[in-house]
Amino acid sequence: MTEPILDVIDLKKSFGDNHVLKGISMKVMPQEVVTIIGPSGSGKSTLLRCLNHLNVPDGGRIIFQGHDINDKDIDINAVRTQMNMVFQSFNLFMHLTAKRNIALALMKVKRMTKAEAEERAINALVKVGLGEKADAYPGELSGGQQQRVAIARAMAMDPKVILFDEPTSALDPELIGEVLDVMKKLALSGMTMVVVTHEMGFAREMADKIIFMDQGVIAEQGTPEEIFVNPQNPRTKVFLRRILKEMTAMDPGIPPDFVPNGNGVQDNP
Predict the structure, then answer these.
(1) At what angle do helices 114-127 and 143-156 cross, to 10 degrees?
(2) Is the CB of residue 131 less than 8 Å from the CB of residue 125?
(3) Which end of the chain is more exposed for a tag (fewer CB within 10 A), N or C?
């Protein structure tokens, strides 16, 4: 039986008296796409940041490729090269070109020569449809293009897992699709992905597993079919009903069977 590439056991994190994560346990299998959904303030982003110690957990275990990264002897920077992260705010250096934004980490972390790093950077940009923007600065790019550069930067590190923290939340609605298209291609290529998102269409189409978080715990998890069609937890139903109402208000063309009636989150007629 295949072992999980990432095994989170009873993870806890507090900020003062605010207990944000209250014992999270989850598994991510190789080449699996796991989406994490839930209301704002439920602990989704904190969970993601704990996975590669951008926030240091207060308790629990994070087993990544067979090693507990909470162990004090673990080189966390080496872990981060294998469990890379894409942020909602892009985190690009504004004074560096797209190519140099990607090449810099390759030179500093992977000790590549400038020529090697820039060649890999250009290849990564081509994969996200930005080969012609290699010498452009972030200020010359749209938000969607900047986020695609950030995804290319993560891809160039050749990680085992990419973590996405609401990668479309800072984008104008017309730019969201281009980023989701890149993420879909990445998922179809076999990349293991953990994605915090409010994009329910992406979650339903691409996720192997959906985790619903609420108030610092995993309230429910399952396949897209189980979560969208037949959720069991009342909190999941309330959340999805609200999200569907917001989506329909913004786009009346949302298909009526996006979340079916019956045991799902819509009321029976």
Answers:
(1) 130
(2) yes
(3) N
DSSP track, 120-164: HHHHHHHHTT-GGGTT--GGGS-HHHHHHHHHHHHHHT--SEEEE
Q: Quickly tell me which residue has 């479309």 as its tokens.
A: 168
Q: What distance in Å separates the CA atoms of residue 184 and residue 196, rounded to the nearest whole number?
A: 14
Average pLDDT over residues 27-50: 96
Closest CA to 107 of 174, 64, 157: 157
**92-140: per-residue pLDDT in tens?**
999 999 999 999 989 999 999 999 999 999 999 999 999 999 999 999 9
pTM over 0.70: yes
Q: How confident is the model at residue 255 (pLDDT cuts 50, 70, 90)?
A: low
- The answer to whether 83 and 52 have CB atoms below 8 angstroms apart is yes
Please name the amino acid found at residue 201. G
Residue 269 scores a pLDDT above 50: no
Q: Which amino acid is at 59?
A: G
* CA-wise closest residue to 10 among 47, 38, 39, 49: 47
